[in-house]
Specification:
7 helices, alpha+beta, Four Helix Bundle (Hemerythrin (Met), subunit A), two-stranded antiparallel sheet, single chain
Length: about 250
């Protein structure tokens, strides 16, 4: 996947959804933020990330110190500000080099890591905005699948939180889009080696099956499994426990 193109494309799509709604519309999947607050969060987040990269920071950046971190009041100018912020992330990576290690919330990573992270940040917040407005959430299957892989990866390596599964527990997710092939399956397990995941096919204590966008929205707690059109097999308590313990994005 071309993550650079995806970042620009998904940012534009997010802006289109925001433009279509009342800025004061509550966004229930983001703690009751309004669309305006969600817009500022995404736009400032890209500039925050670009500044971390361009300054080659090894410590987090206070969001209050983000340059040009507030969108203009005029909607057209605000959309330009949003789109420019996404380009700034790409430009910052090009400037310092994709392999240069910088600060991230899960430890030092190559600067290029941030492009993929920001793609999926804006993608899920685009979904938040669409859900708030009662619009369908339509994502390319490969994008939704990679977003799910990235989220599971973060949830399994982020040591700031307790493991999402007790030792001996496992989860299997299976997307129904055949064209995804092996990348449309996910196994998450906690064994003697710790919490890990893979694209392997297997039987978990609980299994969820359905469209990949539904799997993504359910895993990130944007919709229930039932509302996302998923079939659930096995011990639902394991799934509920995973949702309770994995951090909310």
């Amino acid at each position: 996947m071309d993550f650079r193109a995806a970042l620009l494309e998904q940012t534009r799509a997010f802006g289109d959804v925001i433009r279509s709604g009342d800025p004061d519309t509550p966004v229930p999947t983001c703690g009751g933020w309004t669309l305006q607050q969600l817009f500022r969060h995404v736009g400032r987040g890209n500039r925050w990330c670009a500044q971390i990269i361009s300054e080659r920071r090894n410590q987090p950046l206070d969001p209050r110190e983000v340059r040009d971190g507030k969108p203009p009041d005029d909607m057209d100018a605000a959309i330009d500000w949003l789109d420019r912020g996404a380009q700034l992330v790409i430009d910052a990576v090009d400037h310092v080099g994709a392999d240069v290690r910088v600060w991230t919330f899960i430890g030092p990573r190559p600067a290029g890591w941030w492009i993929r992270r920001r793609v999926h940040e804006v993608t899920i917040h685009r979904a938040d905005a669409a859900l708030a407005l009662g619009l369908p959430v339509e994502l390319p299957p490969d994008l939704a699948a990679d977003a799910l892989s990235e989220w599971i990866e973060l949830a399994t390596v982020d040591k700031r939180h307790a493991p999402g599964l007790d030792r001996g527990q496992s989860i299997h997710l299976h997307a129904t889009e055949e064209k995804l092939g092996p990348t449309g399956e996910w196994t998450i397990a906690h064994d003697e080696d710790g919490l890990w995941w893979s694209h392997s096919h297997g039987k978990g204590d609980v299994a969820l099956r359905g469209p990949v966008t539904g799997l993504l929205l359910a895993t990130l707690r944007r919709r229930s499994a039932a509302d996302a059109g998923l079939e659930v097999f096995g011990d639902t308590a394991v799934w509920d426990g995973w949702l309770e313990r994995t951090p909310f994005e």
